[in-house]
Task: structure prediction
Amino acid sequence: MGSAEKDVVILAVESSCDETAAAVVRNGREVLSNIIFSQIALHTQYGGVVPEIASRKHIEKINQVMEEALSEAHMTLDEIDAIAVTYGPGLVGALLVGVAAAKAAAYAAGKPLIGVHHIEGHISANYIENKELKPPFLCLVVSGGHTHLVQVEDYGVYRIVGRTRDDAAGEAFDKVARAIGLGYPGGPKIEKVSREGNADAIAFPRAKVAENPYDFSFSGVKSAVLNFINSCKMKNIPVVQADIAASFQKAVTDVLIEHAMMAVKEFQINKFAIAGGVASNSALRTGMQEACKKQGVEFYHPSPVFCTDNAAMIGTAAYYEYLAGRRDGWDLNAVPNLRLGER
Ligand code: KG4
Ligand code: ZN
Result:
């Protein structure tokens, strides 16, 4: 060894859903820039993400966002070692924009191209602020599209322990928010009104999946909320939005915590992390923190800006792919239903 190893600087692109994002990351854990253009305001009037609008906005913004990421990092494309991009899972039209932009930039600059799995990105967000965190650890990924309990055996090596059978946790937040008149995006709005509500007001179900105790199911709690609202209306009882929100949030976070801690015990885990948009929920963070403390397990979580979609997490994941020698060709394509650990 002796001499200092050369830095690896990666320009990363993310466009799998409704955020157009680019970031520059040095040596996997040092974020030099993290530009996020959120389309949330655009989709709010439709009550959710409209794929066609998302794709069009990505096309409009992607070059500008990539240029901004470079200029904020005081870098030129020449100084970059590789270009990384989310190629799945996600909305196909949205993914394609990032993949095409990353390929074009990599081809023009003669740089290697690395396709990254979106969930691997979310998990890797934990490395950014926790410099000492290394696999193996257990990670709960909770986002708008995914609910996965994953054993991170090594960098790039994942074993899925549990997953949702129906709705993702974030999807349940979004659907319930719509039902109680909070609108899109549901997660942050439910979190906010929950602070004024009583989490023990309504006993919503905590579903168990018979075949795999680590799997999740959130469609039942969503239906229970809808039924509760209907029965209130029929009986002419006022619907207390804050109590429903708080009780629903408690039902979801209780299940997430219970399953995670069951896995922690069973697999004798000593490091546990959370990731994805729902991981920015403070009730979930506090609950997990306390549960981990009780179990004597180290608890990790990214800052909220690295929980929701961003490109820094893609740059971090790509760094370990880069070290492992993984490169993609110009035939890299968007894979909307890409599975974790598949390449
Ligand atoms: O990771 P993400 O930005 O996109 C996906 O990969 O899906 O996650 C977005 C999801 C949405 O469903 C949103 O409602 C949820 O994360 N979310 C939250 C919170 N912030 C975002 N859910 C609960 N509490 C929050 N504070
Ligand atoms: Zn995501």
